[in-house]
From TrEMBL:
GO BP annotations, alphabetical order: phosphorelay signal transduction system; regulation of DNA-templated transcription
SMART domains: HTH_LUXR, REC
UniProt-listed Pfam families: GerE, Response_reg
Domain named HTH luxR-type: residues: 134-199
Protein name as it appears in the record: Response regulator transcription factor
Keyword Phosphoprotein applies: yes
Native source species: Paracoccus gahaiensis
Keywords noted in UniProt: DNA-binding, Phosphoprotein
């Protein structure tokens, strides 16, 4: 089985590749960027049976990298590798087309089992993770943070939100940073997506 392993951390990449090579069932090709992964797939589109894609790798921009790869190579299953283990992120990745969600803390046996599961055409995510009640809630936010989030949902810039709320732009930036942390979001766009259901 040919696997394309894309991770920008050399030590992590080498450790994962070593784990997968233990039983000799896998041929591993390694790249360290999203661009490298896309170029490799473009050069040999029929070679790989699975792509292991690091969520935090340069060029990924959250799940946008996953979407790009799935769009360009829809026939190749892509599993997300991540050290940021959360049920919310797992559900978002699977919704975006990931064939699996694999924490980097997996043992060799766990990783092999997950890959074998994906090879059957199934979608894999750790059961204990998916059962966690970790859905973000807009109720965690202060009224001011909720006001700022409303502005973000309307596509307004920090400057526009500051004018609407009669606050300094730097204050809006701090509110955005805080609400992103509370919602577990990497950026303002993801914050809007994560809070969408709660705000209606």
């Amino acid at each position: 089985m040919n696997i394309l392993l894309a991770d920008d951390h050399a030590l992590v990449r080498e450790a994962l590749a070593s784990l997968l090579r233990i039983d000799g069932a896998y041929e591993i090709s390694e790249v360290e960027t999203l661009g490298g992964a896309l170029t490799t797939l473009e050069a040999e589109p029929d070679k790989f049976d699975l792509v292991l894609l690091d969520y935090d790798m340069p060029g990924m921009n959250g799940l946008e990298g996953l979407v790009r790869m799935r769009t360009a190579f829809p026939h190749v299953p892509v599993a997300m590798l991540t050290g940021s283990v959360s049920a919310t992120l797992a559900k978002q990745a699977l919704s975006a087309g990931a064939a699996g969600f694999l924490p980097k803390t997996f043992s060799a046996r766990g990783l092999a089992a997950a890959i074998a599961f994906i090879r059957t055409g199934s979608v894999f995510a750790p059961c204990d993770l998916m059962m966690e009640n970790t859905a973000p809630s807009a109720s965690k936010l202060t009224k001011r943070e909720a006001d700022v989030l409303t502005g973000l949902r309307q596509g307004k810039s920090n400057k526009e939100i500051a004018r609407d709320l009669d606050l300094q732009e730097v204050t809006i930036k701090l509110h955005v940073k805080t609400l992103c942390r509370k919602l577990g979001a990497k950026n303002r766009t993801q914050a809007v997506l994560l809070a969408g259901e709660d705000l209606g």
